[in-house]
Each structure stands twice: as C-alpha cells, then as structure tokens.
Amino acid sequence: MNMNSSAYLIEGPVPASLTGAEIAGQQQKTAAGAVAVFLGQVRNDAIDGKTVSGIEYSAYDAMIDPVVTEIHEELFHDFSDLIFVKILHSNGLVKCGEVSLLVVVSSGHRKQAFAALEQCVERIKANLPVWKKELFTDGTSRWIS
C-alpha cells in the first residue's frame, strides 16, 4: 500500500486491512452513535461481448484535494450531527473484486450517517476528477466517460 501525498488517493486497491483500521479507529470517537461505510468494488461487467478484468484509474492530487475538501465542507454544513468523514480512492490498476473507493462517515445518529454517506458517494461520483479505463479479459480497453 503506497499512499500518495494526498490523504485521499492510494496506489492500487484499498486493502481490507486499511478498511478495518479505519473502522476500528471510529471507536475512539465516543460521541458517534453510528458509523456508515461504503466500499466501491470493481465489477466484472459484460460489455459488447467482452468481460471487464479491471479498471485503471488516473487521478492527480492537485485536482483531487480541493474537490474532496469541498465535499467535506458541504457535508459538515448539511449534516449537523456529522463527526467524521474519510474518503479514499484508488489510483492505478484495480482488478475485479477489489475495492477502489472507501468512504467512512460517523455521526451521532444513524439517519444522518446514512444520509451523509449517500450524499458523499453521489458527490464523489459527480465531481471527483478521476478518469477510468476499463480493461477487458481479451486485452483490449476503453475509457469510461
């Protein structure tokens, strides 16, 4: 696991050990009554008769950092009960079955944790400048818009 200078990008897939450590770290936030976790996993979709074997992500700290900062600020503004938000996205190759996105949210109560998690993931999908190239089992690839 090679963390970039950004706190938000990780080279390759997000390892289960890091996910476990993030969840375990929530126990220190004793004001939290709820921890919600999202794991985005690469699927082996069938597209035009080809099967996806993985996705190669391209992202840059200088472009990611301000967007994630804005997402954090919006979430803490929109959810008064929010205590913690962690966003970690893969850069580089992630094979099918591996995790490319980890989002951990904690709040005082579950309804805000669930709502904040969903809003966070939707904002990441809509705004995070990450380029994706699907790799197929036949050796071909295509960029995803």
Description of the molecule:
- With 145 residues, this protein is of the alpha+beta class.
- The chain has three helices and nine strands.
- It has helices at 16-25, 61-78, 110-127, and strands at 2-3, 9-11, 34-41, 46-47, 50-58, 82-95, 99-107, 131-136, 141-144.
- Strands 1, 2, 3, 4, 5, 6, 7, 8 and 9 form a nine-stranded mixed β-sheet that branches.
- A hairpin with a 3-residue loop joins strand 6 (82-95) and strand 7 (99-107).
- The longest helix is centred in the middle third of the chain and has 18 residues, at 61-78.
Task: Spell out the blueprint of helices and strands.
Elements: E1 2-3, E2 9-11, H1 16-25, E3 34-41, E4 46-47, E5 50-58, H2 61-78, E6 82-95, E7 99-107, H3 110-127, E8 131-136, E9 141-144
Parallel strand pairs: 2-6
Antiparallel strand pairs: 1-2, 3-7, 4-5, 5-6, 5-8, 6-7, 8-9
